[in-house]
Inverse folding.
């Protein structure tokens, strides 16, 4: 009787499929398994051995192709966790399939070329909702920062933004772009300079200048620095009444106070931690299931195709300007 009840409960859950079984697939599998409304129904990879090992670990089924996964497992949610350059073609195959899922999650970046972005922009989204895993948008700490800025808690004027990142423009710089877009609104590309190759030969570092629509005239600088010795990923947003300092998952807030001479100065006020990538992804999967259950369709707007497209356009503009 218990086995029958468990079977019924599992069949009532939304089915998730994963394409590509690398490191990011592990995080998606964990999110799908831990969410009470979803179940991992199948995976596929071009490497049958790796796909089989992954399926065994997560107690699911390995399929030999995207077509087999969609035809036999018929997932409600599909996550593309394959190499960056394959995202666009796989997304096209998924969306055009007879058993296209209702939600397609694409790991960042959305794609790696202007041609791919144009192709994706032409795909219909009447059956399948495309979202991109820019997980900081589902991070409660970054949501808190967004509201802090919107409520003018640190002042009405943005003075400067400086973000240092490492490893590669596609691999790490994209997090800086999308987080700044989340916090400040629409940004536009101004200038870029290729500086050096760091961890990835095919993904160099760039120094980039952006402009904010909400705060025109303010220089927003992204600086690529070598990974060694410090692996720095830091941002400072300076406002006329305070400052935000982001150091990986640590967030520090400095507010304006008067010093002993009654002059305005910045004083440390509070520190809080960002959610882990696991928790942020759990929140995203919960939003997907809420949407699938007939909830507010706008719940996925913050990570929808249009938002990802704008982030990707800046990413690609910096490269094409060379």
């Amino acid at each position: 009787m218990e086995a029958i009840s468990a079977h019924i409960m599992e069949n009532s859950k939304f089915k998730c499929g994963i394409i590509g079984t690398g490191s990011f697939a592990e995080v998606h599998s964990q999110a799908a398994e831990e969410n009470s409304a979803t179940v991992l129904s199948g995976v596929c990879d071009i490497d049958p051995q790796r796909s089989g090992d992954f399926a065994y670990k997560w107690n699911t089924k390995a399929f030999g192709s995207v077509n087999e996964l969609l035809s036999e497992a018929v997932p409600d949610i599909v996550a593309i966790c394959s190499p960056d350059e394959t995202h666009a073609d796989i997304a096209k195959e998924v969306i055009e399939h007879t058993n296209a899922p209702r939600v397609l999650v694409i790991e960042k970046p959305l794609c790696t070329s202007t041609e791919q972005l144009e192709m994706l922009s032409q795909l219909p989204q009447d059956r399948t909702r495309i979202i991109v895993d820019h997980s900081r948008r589902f991070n409660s700490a970054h949501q808190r920062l967004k509201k802090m800025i919107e409520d003018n808690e640190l002042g009405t004027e943005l003075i400067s933004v400086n973000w240092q990142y490492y490893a590669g423009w596609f691999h790490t710089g994209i997090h800086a772009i999308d987080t700044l877009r989340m916090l400040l609104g629409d940004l536009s590309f101004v200038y870029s300079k290729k500086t050096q190759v760091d961890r990835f030969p095919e993904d160099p570092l760039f120094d980039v200048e952006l402009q904010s629509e909400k705060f025109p005239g303010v220089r927003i600088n992204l600086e690529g620095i070598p990974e060694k010795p410090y692996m720095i990923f830091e941002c400072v947003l300076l406002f006329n009444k305070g400052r935000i300092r982001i150091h990986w998952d640590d967030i520090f807030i400095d507010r304006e106070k008067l010093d002993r001479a009654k002059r305005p100065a910045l004083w440390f006020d509070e520190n809080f931690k960002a959610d882990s990538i696991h928790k942020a992804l759990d929140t995203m999967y919960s939003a997907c299931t809420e949407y699938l259950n007939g909830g507010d369709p706008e719940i996925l707007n913050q990570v929808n195709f249009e938002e990802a497209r704008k982030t990707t356009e800046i990413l690609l503009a910096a490269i094409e300007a060379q």
Remarks:
- DSSP finds ten helices and 14 strands in the chain.
